[in-house]
Design a protein that fits this description.
Order of helices and strands: HHHHHHHHHHHHHHH
Helix content: over 70%
Distance between the termini: 16 Å
């Protein structure tokens, strides 16, 4: 069941990436991020009300607050990356999250991956190398160096690392509550803190309100898609090892790469698809490993 949920989550996240890229053409990452959170809250609130909210213990709140700086920083870095660089170039680097979760899951949750799973995660990393293959004529290390020369990819690599920590803390919070309760309160607190950050940067409430209504139809579609993505993520990750679920979820990068070519006329799509395909092979090894 978790595998199907991860694939559905990947599709929803990929669609959300496209909507986010479109929204970022007219607004900055804080406004788009706040819109993603606020427009998703009604759906998450209804789901929490229908499912019922369990008693939430202090460890749940402590875990959620501990997760907040990692999650919010990763979220803003991700949005900034797809704003300043091509979608097909930046989104695949989120596939590094499963690599980082090998270490973070072992430290935070005591989870281990099998040998086949580890090989699959390394294959994902190789796909990242292939995305910059056009620079290999400058030396075997040139594709790796290119990752850090491009501002967007630097942001996304750091975002992937922070997400690897946030994902593990998120699973702990889910196990201390319920998937639906976690999704609602996580989104609510993130929206509150991001609103404070925008206000601290001299964004008046009226200005924020005007910005949030400027692209309301697009934001409504974006919020709805991301609410469903968060619910499938919360349920799926509660019943599976974190590295495996996150690895399957990262197949959303295929949607991002293809959409970059179709909707944003980005270059080197075939080359980036090759790297993305290699990542999918790695994801398959992870999913079907014992």
């Amino acid at each position: 069941m978790w595998f199907s949920l991860a694939l559905l989550c990947a599709l929803l996240v990929g669609i959300g990436d496209v909507f986010s890229k479109l929204a970022l053409q007219k607004s900055n990452e804080k406004i788009v991020g706040l819109a993603r959170l606020l427009y998703a809250l009604p759906i998450l609130g209804l789901a929490a009300w229908a499912k019922g909210i369990p008693t939430l213990s202090p460890p749940f709140w402590f875990t959620l607050l501990g997760m907040l700086p990692f999650e919010l920083s990763a979220f803003l870095l991700y949005l900034r990356a797809i704003r300043v660089a091509p979608l097909s170039l930046t989104v695949p680097f989120l596939a590094l999250t499963p690599v980082f979760t090998i270490v973070t899951s072992w430290i935070l949750l005591g989870e281990r991956v099998s040998f086949a799973g580890a090989v699959g995660i390394l294959a994902v990393t190789t796909g990242v190398y292939l995305i910059h293959m056009e620079t290999v004529s400058k030396g075997w290390s040139a594709p790796l160096v290119s990752i850090f020369r491009e501002r967007g990819t630097r942001f996304m690599v750091l975002s992937a690392f922070l997400y690897s920590i946030a994902s593990n803390l998120g699973k702990r919070a889910i196990l201390l509550s319920s998937p639906v309760a976690f999704a609602f309160f996580y989104q609510l607190i993130d929206a509150f803190v991001l609103s404070l950050l925008a206000w601290w940067e001299s964004w008046s409430l009226r200005h924020m309100g005007n910005e949030l209504l400027l692209q309301w139809k697009l934001y409504l579609a974006l919020g709805s898609v991301m609410a469903c993505a968060l619910l499938t993520h919360a349920v799926g990750i509660s019943i599976s090892p974190v590295p495996y679920f996150i690895a399957i979820k990262r197949t959303s990068l295929l949607v991002g790469v293809i959409s970059g070519g179709l909707f944003f006329k980005e270059e080197r799509i075939l080359q980036r698809l090759l790297g993305a395909a290699f990542m999918v092979v790695g994801v398959g090894l992870i999913a079907f490993s014992p």
